[in-house]
Amino acid sequence: MTSIQPTAEFILFDLDGTLVDPAPGITGSVQHALKTLGYDVPSSHDLNWVIGPPLRQSFAKLLANEELVEEAVELYRAAYRNGGILQAEPYACIFEALKVLKCRGYRLFLCTSKPLPFARRVIEHFGFAGYFDELYGAELDGRFDDKTELIAHILLSQGLKARQGCMVGDRSNDTLAARQNDMPSVGVTWGYGDQHELNGNGATALCERVEDLPDRISSVLKG
Predict the structure, then answer these.
(1) Measured between alpha carbons, how far is 187 from 199 in angstroms, rounded to an integer?
(2) How many other C-beta atoms can be found within 10 angstroms of the C-beta atom of residue 74?
(3) Which residues face 112 on adjacent strands?
(4) Active site residue 21
(5) Spans of the chain below 50 pLDDT
(6) What percent of the chain has pLDDT over 70?
(7) Which of 144, 188, 192, 199 minimizes the C-alpha distance to 166?
(8) What is the pLDDT of residues 130-149, one digit of tens each?
(9) Starting from the edge strand earliest in sequence, which strands make up the sheet with 10-13, in order?
(10) Domains parsed from the chain with CATH numbers
(11) CB-CB neighbours of 146 under 10 Å
(12) Which Pfam families does the record match to this protein (predicted)?
């Protein structure tokens, strides 16, 4: 049997909107927090923009009251922890794409703004764990909410060189964070960011179909 030879190249994957569609659980938990605080509750569709960016940043925009942000975060987390977290669905063909990338020898790391305990639960529940070398996410206290800082932390912790890697994500915070770390990125359009958002915020390349992702990443890494 031919063994897979690892390379120095690596890929950082966003979670929500890239590996899984988490809309019902996230928007429902935001609605719960807003309702509990006495705010008008937007429709689920009108809350899709909160998927991807750091939670505190989203509540700061929704509430326009910094003093309530931490309370809203705790209300959200209670609802999300008690059911919303598993109201998600892996995108079609995503497991096949990850398998191809692993067979090509790439090291894969999760890089998400979701708090790591929640991200780990999602990854394990849906069967992603075996594809990743390590999981990285935000801390519950807000550390590494900023994806630029999170990528820098991953590079330092793993001894990786930015130009040998690629960030894969669906929102501007993914592509901008990669650019700020001198790392190429692939913006995926099956999530919650469109071509305009991704192209306007530093994406090296775009990918519209999960089936095309391995070849698109390989092309970007070859420069």
Answers:
(1) 8
(2) 11
(3) 137
(4) no
(5) 1
(6) 97
(7) 188
(8) 999 999 999 989 899 999 99
(9) 134-138, 107-115, 10-13, 165-169, 185-188, 205-207
(10) 10-22+88-222 (3.40.50.1000), 23-86 (1.10.150.240)
(11) 17
(12) HAD_2 (PF13419)
